[in-house]
Every structure is written in structure tokens, then in C-alpha cells.
What we know:
Elements: H1 2-12, E1 14-23, E2 26-34, E3 40-52, E4 60-71, H2 75-93
Antiparallel strand pairs: 1-2, 2-3, 3-4
Amino acid sequence: MEELKKADENKEKEIVFSRTVKAGKRIYYIDVKRNRKDELYLAITESKKVIEGLDPATQRVNFEKHKIFVYREDFDKFLASIVESIKFIEGEQGKSEPRPESNDSEIKIDLDF
């Protein structure tokens, strides 16, 4: 019974498609996942590097993660709201300059021990 429960939990977390957006100290993960009912949904995760402590000798590096889940029945409303919000920001502040893309697909994490 316990193994069946773990198998269900693993299926809940199955990623079937993924994209990563690197943006300074933040990384955004856009994942398409499959739930137990075999339905696909969108999981968006923001991971932000946070350095705790002022003294370099005792500083600790952590990563804050925030997630949102968007389900199929909400895609149209969600996308329309994102596009409308971006247009509003661009109207107020102009278009942003794109960050230079790195050819390096490897994520580098700077950790000092």
C-alpha cells in the first residue's frame, strides 16, 4: 500500500516538458506536469538566490522558491492577463532591453564554505 502511495506521489510530480529562464539572481522554471488523472498543467517556479548574514565568514546561501500552478481551464484567462499586464508596463516604462543570452546551458552556483 505504501509503495502505491509513493508511486502516486511520483506520478503527481512527473515533468513532461520544461524550459528554464535565467534572469540575474533569479531562475524561472516553466514545467508542464502530469497529475494523477493524467491531465497536464503548468507549474511556474521562481528560484532566487538569497545570501543570509553580513559577515562573509558566516554567510549562508539559500534559495527561495515560489510556485504557481495554472490549470488548462484557466490558460486563456491567465495568458490574456499576462499579455495585458506586459503591454501596460511597456506603455508606462517602454520596452525593456533584453539581457544578453549566455551560450552556456549549465547553471553555475557560487557557494563558499
